[in-house]
Amino acid sequence: MYADSLRAFVGKHPSHSRAREVYRLVQLEFARELAAHGRYSDAISFYRAILTDDPGNREASKELADAAERMAVSRQKLLALEKGMSQSDVVHLLGKPMPGWKVRNRHRDTVLESWYYRTTDGGLAGVYFRDGELLAAEEKSEAKLAPLTR
Predict the structure, then answer these.
(1) Which range of residues forms the domain containing residue 98?
(2) 134 and 92: one domain?
């Protein structure tokens, strides 16, 4: 409600520099929160809105580039994965998968988890865990399926 009220105030009083500054800070914090939850496309919209009003905002520019990079993973990043890595290690390399791009199943005493990512070449990558440790990763392009885990 606060952000909506602030936006309405800025819309009514566009020359009020302090209100515009506070609103940009609220937008930046919200964009960061979205990115932290893997909602990169939503975060990108907020970063772009900030940059429309303040094209020289270095924080928003840098974080926009980071979010755009996280929208898809490169083959180089996938090849850096190693069997046995923890889920937090994988998040550090690839980022969190987008909401809805995780599947978790229990099979007897084992927890199997699959994370999916878009790749920079337009394909799909799957990263697979058994009991929280990286078991395998693969990339599927339109032409072939290539295993990546060493």
Answers:
(1) 75-147
(2) yes
